[in-house]
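Friendly challenge for the regulars: who can give me the structure tokens for this chain first? No prize, just bragging rights.
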Amino acid sequence: MVFGGLWDTLLSVVKALLPLLGLFLAFQVLFLKLPRHYIFNLLKGTSLALVGLLLFLQGVRIGFLPAGEAIGRALGSITGKWLLIPFGVFIGFLTTWTEPAVRILCDQVEKASAASIRKSVVLYTICSGVALFVGLGMAKIIYGIPLLYIVVPGYLLSLLMLWFSDREFLSIAFDAGGVATGPMAVTFLMAIAIGLSSAIEGRDPVIHGFGLIALIALAPIISVMALGFLFRLKQWKKE
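First reply, four minutes later:
Bragging rights claimed.
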């Protein structure tokens, strides 16, 4: 049903927004003293955000999650399991490309750097990194690779790259890791991973299905710092 679980979704949205609204109102009374029309606009914006989050999360509940799990179970039934790796690369790139938070970050990077770092370059870098790691996540599920075998070397590599990447890209890289794990990735890709692991014999959905979001969070950190390393090499050549 379209409205199934709507009340629970509404309560979760209200619980998420009320503390932020209460914090602002406390600062308004004690420190800010902003004019009334500003407060009125804030309340209108909060109401719109509440309705938007309610519709989105309800859509996720009745649409994205069931669809992702159904796709994962269907993929688990094919004979050539290795085909899931390039499929993971494709769906990882496409999902990140449509992630609103990723595009906002790229716009802010271009604006803050006075267009010296193009938003299209950052966007393609993040999408490519996530695509490769989603493909790696598919391989993890197919071949039963322990998550620690991927996560530990990945973070060690990211720590090593801190010394070689351009420092302007370091903060961007770690912020990119946060925005890449947005609602599209969490609701769709995680559901596919759970559905896929439940359809493959010998795979526990809890052990093998989860963990993909950790890889998606790691991917932009490495890819953006690699981009910073290329920028640093370019500067060295000019010098």
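The chain has a mean pLDDT of 91. The radius of gyration is 21 Å. Your move, everyone else.
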